[in-house]
């Protein structure tokens, strides 16, 4: 298993936000996490990515326990999260934004720059080529030299995801990727996420757009009042009477 979440509990003062949450995610798998407002979805993402510590429970990544590790360390291990609000460098071009995604792999870079060694120039050329490759693969090549602020919101979302891909994560945690998008932008996002899936990237996706979730996810876990009330293939989960009652019915 790539990721295992075991008996996760989170208390915020008097409030039990999570009560014994269990689920796992295999390599290359796309898992959806849905549920009503306040169910605890963002809290799960915050704990996996190290932004919050659980009250109880453990997180394992590639067989290693990572519970309570700081966010930078978790990111270095290959778990990358995106936020509900787009975090983009508005003045930089699309290509430059994607180039920044490579910094996780640029350990030697600074020294070679300082010493003026040819390796730095060679490495930079290689990275530019790789960034162009990613943009081409994701259908963003034609906007590579545009400044990010000129792009519509939906495209900015895609650029943020392309930058995440450039850092070669093992697992992407997406917090409401479709929030604020129009229905045509959401359709475009779905195609984009399918490309990431075809690259073999594992993803945990939290979103209220259930159509997007049914389309892209291999399995879906439903959270209500801090508990997983159903987990399985989209076709099963969407017909589960409990899920219909607490989430879909409304
Ligand atoms: N830092 C915090 N301090 C206190 N309570 C919190 C904190 N973060 C979340 N909560 C509470 O924990 C519960 C779960 O919140 P969470 O944001 O994880 O839900 P969610 O399923 O992501 O909801 P939404 O779909 O509305 O984003 C809510 O009752 C929320 O008010």
UniProtKB/TrEMBL annotation:
<dbReference type="Pfam" id="PF12399">
    <property type="entry name" value="BCA_ABC_TP_C"/>
</dbReference>
<dbReference type="GO" id="GO:0016887">
    <property type="term" value="F:ATP hydrolysis activity"/>
</dbReference>
<dbReference type="InterPro" id="IPR027417">
    <property type="entry name" value="P-loop_NTPase"/>
</dbReference>
<dbReference type="GO" id="GO:0005524">
    <property type="term" value="F:ATP binding"/>
</dbReference>
<dbReference type="InterPro" id="IPR003439">
    <property type="entry name" value="ABC_transporter-like_ATP-bd"/>
</dbReference>
<dbReference type="Pfam" id="PF00005">
    <property type="entry name" value="ABC_tran"/>
</dbReference>
<dbReference type="InterPro" id="IPR032823">
    <property type="entry name" value="BCA_ABC_TP_C"/>
</dbReference>
<protein>
    <submittedName>
        <fullName>ABC transporter related protein</fullName>
    </submittedName>
</protein>
<dbReference type="InterPro" id="IPR003593">
    <property type="entry name" value="AAA+_ATPase"/>
</dbReference>
<keyword id="KW-0547">Nucleotide-binding</keyword>
<keyword id="KW-0067">ATP-binding</keyword>
<dbReference type="GO" id="GO:0005886">
    <property type="term" value="C:plasma membrane"/>
</dbReference>
<keyword id="KW-0813">Transport</keyword>
<feature type="domain" description="ABC transporter">
    <location>
        <begin position="3"/>
        <end position="250"/>
    </location>
</feature>
<dbReference type="InterPro" id="IPR051120">
    <property type="entry name" value="ABC_AA/LPS_Transport"/>
</dbReference>
């Amino acid at each position: 298993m790539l990721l295992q979440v075991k008996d996760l509990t989170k208390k915020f003062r008097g409030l039990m936000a999570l009560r014994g949450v269990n689920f796992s995610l295999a390599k290359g798998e796309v898992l959806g996490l849905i549920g009503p407002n306040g169910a605890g979805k963002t809290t799960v993402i915050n704990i996996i990515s190290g932004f919050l510590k659980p009250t109880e429970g453990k997180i394992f990544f590639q067989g290693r326990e990572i519970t309570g590790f700081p966010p930078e360390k978790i990111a270095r291990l290959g778990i990358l999260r995106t936020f509900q609000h787009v975090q983009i460098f508005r003045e930089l071009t699309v290509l430059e934004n994607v180039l920044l995604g490579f910094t996780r792999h640029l350990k030697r870079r600074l020294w070679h720059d300082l010493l003026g060694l040819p390796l730095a120039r060679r490495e930079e050329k290689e990275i530019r080529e790789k960034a162009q490759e990613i943009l081409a693969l994701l259908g963003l090549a034609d906007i590579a030299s545009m400044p990010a602020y000129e792009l519509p919101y939906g495209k900015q979302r895609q650029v943020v995801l392309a930058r995440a891909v450039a850092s070669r994560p093992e697992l992407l945690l997406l917090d409401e990727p479709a929030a604020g998008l129009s229905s045509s932008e959401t359709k475009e996002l779905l195609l984009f996420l399918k490309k990431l899936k075809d690259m073999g990237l594992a993803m945990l996706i939290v979103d209220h757009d259930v159509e997007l979730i049914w389309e892209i996810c291999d399995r879906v876990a439903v959270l209500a009042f801090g508990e997983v009330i159903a987990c399985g293939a989209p076709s099963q989960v969407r017909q589960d009477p409990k899920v219909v009652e607490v989430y879909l019915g409304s």
